[in-house]
Amino acid sequence: MQRALKELNKPVQLVVVRDGQEAIDYLLGKKARPHLLLLDLHLPRLSGPEVLEQMRNHPDLRGMPVVLWSTSRKVEDVRACYLAGANSFFEKPREYGRLRDVLQTILHYWFESALLLPPAPKGSPP
């Protein structure tokens, strides 16, 4: 993914965590919030939908856009993610060229087309 971001020449800071609990801990421990979270469906400790549920119930995190991605195309997985509060769901590409194309689509939409709220600082009112 880092290689694709570099090739796309996008000024994106990529932070990778090992599991869902680490994702929540990272988000809650930061003073500056990310503009966008790219979240895998199948994470250890807390799954993508579980991370989403915690985020949507936390005043500092509920407004952050979250893009889920997974190799799964199961309707029940897609449904669970949208019901938990995902803003979109992408199938994770298996080939590098397609991965780069999907990342370009995601970044173009969220950073060039969509209007985003500024990230909520830690402890800000809901």
Main sheet? 3 strands, parallel
The CATH superfamily title: Response regulator
For the biggest β-sheet, the strand order reads: 1-2-3
Structural class: mainly alpha
Radius of gyration: 14 Å
What is the average of the pLDDT values? Answer: 90
Q: Could you please say which CATH topology applies here?
A: Rossmann fold
Task: Write down the overall geometry.
Answer: globular
Distance between the termini: 33 Å
Query: Which range best describes the helical content: under 10%, 10-25%, 25-40%, 40-55%, 55-70% or over 70%?
Result: 40-55%
Secondary structure tally, helices: 5
- How would you spell out the order of helices and strands? HHEHEHEH
Number of domains: 1
Strand percentage = 5-15%
Name of the CATH class: Alpha Beta
Unreliable spans are: none
Number of strands: 3
- The second-level CATH architecture is 3-Layer(aba) Sandwich
Structure overview:
With 126 residues, this protein is mainly alpha-helical. The protein has one domain (2-113): Response regulator (Rossmann fold), CATH 3.40.50. The chain is 43% helix and 10% strand. The chain has helices spanning 2-8, 20-29, 48-56, 75-84, 96-113, and strands spanning 37-40, 66-70, 88-91. A 3-stranded parallel beta sheet has the order 1-2-3, with helices on one face. The chain is globular, with a radius of gyration of 14 Å. It starts with a helix and ends in a 13-residue tail after the last helix.
